[in-house]
Amino acid sequence: MRLIFIGDSITDAGRDRTDPSSLGDGYVSMLxxxxxxxxxxxxxxxxxxxxxxDLAARWDSDLLPAAPDVLTVYVGVNEVWRRFDSGxxxxxxxxxxxxxxxxxxxxxxxxxxxxxMEPYLxxxxxxxxxxxxxxxxxxxxxxxxxxxxxxxxxxxHDVLTEAARGRDAADLAPDGVHPLPEASRAIAxxxxxxxxALGH
Length: 200
What we know:
Elements: E1 2-7, H1 9-12, H2 27-37, E2 41-44, H3 52-63, E3 70-74, H4 77-86, H5 92-110, E4 113-117, H6 126-129, H7 132-149, E5 152-154, H8 156-163, H9 181-197
Parallel strand pairs: 1-2, 1-3, 3-4, 4-5
Helix pairs in contact: 2-9, 3-5, 5-7, 8-9
């Protein structure tokens, strides 16, 4: 059983990209001990800063040859972030279309079980609260993709919004996005629930 995780910095989590066995220090590394104890191989293909278009550029070279049995895709927040900090938006229709093509190619190549992680944001400023409508569009796109592909959907925004209720969101993600260990544990548990729902 080969489990591949691909996405942005939250998956990457500082892994050594020169070492194929490196898992970083985020949610993937938290899940790996129990998964490998059960006989699975865990591979982290996250790259910080990636958007769906970046996944598309490396999908055929990085992802498809890895032949995942379970594929987890976690991307979307950089599409939101770059609109507001760099004036470089990704229309939701393009995001969704790109992701649909990638997932379809993965299914054609090997029919992996799919887990899709929605992007989340824990606003730590008034400016970031203005990002939420854009985030909601990307979340809805991921939900539509999950339905269309029969994937497990991990609703991380709800999970982490609840975890931040009544406290300073910066205690979980100082910049609103990158998780501290407590938030990474919540992400890992949400993924674990989805994995179990697949029958594992």
